[in-house]
Amino acid sequence: MGTEGVGGEMIGVVIVDDHPAVVDGVRVWCARAGIAVVAAGARAEVALRGPGAKADAVVFDLQLGAGPAWDDLTRLADEGRRVVVYSQHADSETALRCLELGAATYLTKAEGHEHLIPAIRAAVEDRPYTPPVLGGAMAADPRPDRPVLSEREREVLLAWFSSDSKQLVAQRFHLSVKTVDTYIARVRIKYADAGRPAGTKAALVARALQDGLIDLAGL
């Protein structure tokens, strides 16, 4: 039986990884779970063009080439993509930075299919998912109850607070309404992961006030 994503259609993912053995392994895991791998490649462009541009989620290896592909991760997140970082790095600093740049979640390759498949499903459904390594990183964060938002997530969130509609926010930032929805969903996920769920706009405003993202004068 296939795994259904948003709208009842089968989930489609694109794999960005420069290790063929890893790509093959993820393909097998996805196939067994009823998830379609629509494209794969060693560069972020595979997730931005062709079939990969319409995939529901991006399985992203942070280590592309000589060093961490921070710019590629930022580019994907800024496009509103749901990025599941699948990396060899297990340090807290790297995991938290990926969340700050806009990743939906972060897990290590040592955590394998046991967590990768649930992480993909959660990302597509805009649900929080915290694998063990990420959970440890968040617990070690000096501000564990304050989610780390990317710059664009903060911009969209605050614009939505001061706007009558998501359509106006989309026009302001030259985005689609779907992408605006994705940013706001990611913020909700991060607050839920931090143990401070915010299921309504009013609740998000309250969280933003508590965390100093905005003040009453700004509202």
TrEMBL record:
It comes from the Bacteria. SMART domains: HTH_LUXR, REC. The modification 4-aspartylphosphate is found at D61. PANTHER family: NITRATE_NITRITE RESPONSE REGULATOR PROTEIN NARP, TWO-COMPONENT RESPONSE REGULATOR. Residues 12-124 form the Response regulatory domain. It comes from Pseudonocardia xishanensis. This is Response regulatory domain-containing protein. Keywords: DNA-binding, Phosphoprotein, Transcription, Transcription regulation.
